[in-house]
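Hi V.,

Quick status before I head out on leave. The structure for the redesign project is tokenized and pasted below; the design run finished overnight.
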């Protein structure tokens, strides 16, 4: 994990982005105090964005909403899990 001050980060931003792209995590400091972390994009996010770009999924950056119009027959799954744990 690399640590970099804001001034150096601004001066060499491209090189630090390349490091993040290659999987490194970078901690940004301001006068020696950690203020932010630059992380590489996760494999999960890459997969989601690939599906969106191919038109197989839609995502607008928010949390998924529950499905509407689906009726469940029988007990709720949470009840079944609680029964099996006993």
């Amino acid at each position: 994990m690399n640590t970099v001050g804001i001034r150096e980060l601004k001066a060499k931003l491209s090189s630090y982005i390349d490091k993040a792209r290659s999987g490194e995590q970078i901690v940004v400091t301001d006068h020696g105090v950690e203020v932010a972390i630059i992380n590489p994009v996760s494999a999960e996010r890459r997969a989601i964005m690939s599906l969106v770009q191919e038109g197989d999924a839609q995502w607008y950056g928010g949390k998924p909403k529950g499905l509407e119009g689906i009726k469940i027959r029988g007990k709720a799954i949470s009840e079944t899990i609680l029964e099996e744990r006993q």
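Above is the designed sequence. The first helix runs from residue 6 to 11.

G. will cover questions while I'm gone.

Best,
W.
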